[in-house]
Amino acid sequence: MMLCDAILRRTVLSFPFFRVCWHAHPSILRIMSSANSPCLTGDTPTNLTTSDNCSPGFFCPNNDGDHPPQYCPPTKQCQARRLLMIKNICPEPQGLYEPHICAPGYYCPLGGRQKLQCPKGHFCPTGSERPRLCSGIHICPAGSSKQMPITGLTIVVLIDVLILLFILFPWLPTRVKRHMKLPLHVKDAIICTPLSRKRSSQRNSEILETYDGLQKFVESSKRGIGTDAARIQIEFEKLGFTLKGKQGMVNEVLKDVTGSASPGSLLAVMGASGAGKSTFVKVLTGKARATSGITSINGTPTSMTTKLIGYVPQDDIVLPELTVRENILHSALIRLPKGWTRREIEEHVDTLIHCLDLSHVENSLVGDVINPVLSGGQRKRVSIGIELAAAPMMLILDEPTSGLDATSALSIIKLLKSLSDLGVNVICIIHQPRREIFLSLDRVLLLAGGRQIYLGNTKDSVSYFRDLGYSISDECNPADAIIDIVSGDTQRYASPLLPQHEPHSIHSLADIWKGHEGGERASTQNATIQNTRQKFQTDALAAAAAQRGAPQIRQIFYCLLRAWTQQSRQKVGFILEIVVGAISGLMIGLAVYQLDGLLFQGVYLSPFELLSSSTNYTLVSELGLLNSLAIGLAAAAPGVKTFGEEKTLYWRETASGHSRSAYFIGKILSTFFRIGLSSLHFTVFYALLATPIMPFGQLYLSHLLYFYCIYGLACAVSMVVSRKDGPLLAMIVSLIIGIFGGYGPSLSTVKSWHLEWIWRMCPGVSLSQHSVSTYLLGTRPGFLKRTFTPM
Ligand SMILES: Nc1ncnc2c1ncn2[C@@H]1O[C@H](COP(=O)(O)OP(=O)(O)O)[C@@H](O)[C@H]1O
Ligand SMILES: [Mg+2]
């Protein structure tokens, strides 16, 4: 300082440089001693401009009209630093008249005569012309070169504490649940005593006979089904289903099945395993396309009126995360006629639950085969309940009694019989019914090897086989005897009347039915069908269908509520999703942490470009790529899970008239919270470590949108591939989308291939471009807005 003072007084007082001498770097003093050159190295400087203009973001204390900004060849140390990829700004001026970039933590107001420390609550990255306000809650002491926004972190901590509270203190959600539960007066309205509360020895068919809950449910269903005009009569003629195997092998799974199923009757489809029973109902309901034959409803060849038909599949397709009641109630809320009030629907559902003997487990989760909560039989009854709750006009059930104990099986059949008495057309596949069940069936369709062996009244079936020469005693279970006969196990039933004492083959039994009795019966049936065609009006059916189902907006609401309930019970998956988001953000943040907030450095604006340090053109677009990949990994798997896990349920519901769009909108809305939280955790940790210049809100929004895109993409992938392949495929698709973000190959390259449109379709391009434009072009106008074109 003393030397500086002496020089000031003795020699070059005219130099404006001396106004800042006391603040300048000590090396300036060495410049003073190099008598002939204003450069530190003693080399000849190059004039950058003829005026004394200082570019924004630069510090030019010594320049004036006589001494325009100059470039000085740098010293070895400075040159070495300028060639580094990070922290490569040489803070020492290399010459008396050389402008230098405003250092981090300082700002240099326009004109470049002052270099001021960044005030508290602001941050000043390298090349700042004015201090920037730190956003939200922050840590920005005086002299900050970057902002440390902790708004996001504060929000995240608060949310995480709340989530932990909900998990650690389960009574919180229980209280909420209590609000959703049935009001007390509705429970009181059910008069019948649940079967479970009765002693098991009493649980026999006599109790079922007097079980007034059944009557109550039937009464309730009557309102939904209606009693008059609309009925469903289904006719099928020569129905066939053929599969083509390897080397042109043809497998006739179903052949020439003809007949009808009428409203008010309970038709049982019987046969041994592999007889074609499930295939028959699938073809009948249009779930499998018949390769031959015609199906018609009320005399008109048409597809099924899905809203009026209930189909209970062989496998129990229920939501394991919901309770028994929630599963059944959802179906009722969506599918019952519009006029029903919430209270009426709840009463109807409760009566049904009692009739299905599920009241003691109504608030238990259904579970699945891997995590069982209910028994297989109880789950089956839930599956049946889902259809019965909708009061269908036609009900098709694939083995509803399999897996149930004898009493429960009988109670189910009695329920079905009561519904058929109301005018419901019930078709039910039964594997091997016990005697009481068999005798309570109205009609039987017997299949063997895909061929029709018999279709007619149950009571006539035994005499039909007796007429063929089989001996069926009155003591034995006729159902067992008939199944044995059509399966070829005829030894016990052979009688002297049997032609040549040889049992019939399936083909001969089918031919006998077709040619002899069958032909006659078929023509009788056809006559009946002709009569009923006048009777059952399709218009009435259409009107009944139009009344069915909650309005679209309510369906969306119910689907949303259901999805929320589901998610709230998948705690581990939910927490994992958030943790994965946080870890991904943390990792990417760590990858750029060493850059100390200097995410990209370009070439200085003209005319100061000569002063530029080495540039890393690839860094920002590479960061876009890294972000895309990390988000792809964090969001793809949960996206697949959202839909892929319940594809079968979706098919079941939409096949029975649920609105597809309501399901999807409900699902999508329900995932917003998850996506929002996961991307918030990603952004918070990323922002803390990478300290980007972009405002936190903007950064969050760009990440949120990309998360959302990947979620949607994974969801779409899970729809078209099988459940086990979904995660892998979604992962690879999100990787491709990430790479197609414009980094490698770059947009300028693909433009020359005329394939830019493919890249533009990928959301990664938008994410990268947003990063680039905000990091570089939008926020640092004086410093870096120059020749850089990363993509
Ligand atoms: N999509 C299919 N691919 C191959 N075989 C099938 C298909 N559908 C049915 N089958 C075969 O057709 C036969 C009848 O099946 P199914 O109708 O399920 O019998 P079940 O009477 O036991 O319900 C079985 O042998 C089954 O293997
Ligand atoms: Mg089957």
UniProtKB/TrEMBL annotation:
Domain of life: Eukaryota
CDD domains for the chain: ABCG_EPDR (cd03213)
Pfam family, one: ABC_tran
Compartment(s) of residence: Membrane
UniProt keywords, alphabetically: ATP-binding, Membrane, Nucleotide-binding, Transmembrane, Transmembrane helix, Transport
Membrane topology, as annotated: Multi-pass membrane protein
Start and end residues of each ABC transporter domain: 234-474
Matches recorded under Gene3D superfamilies: P-loop containing nucleotide triphosphate hydrolases
Keyword Transcription: no
GO cellular component, as recorded: membrane
Protein name, per record: ABC transporter domain-containing protein
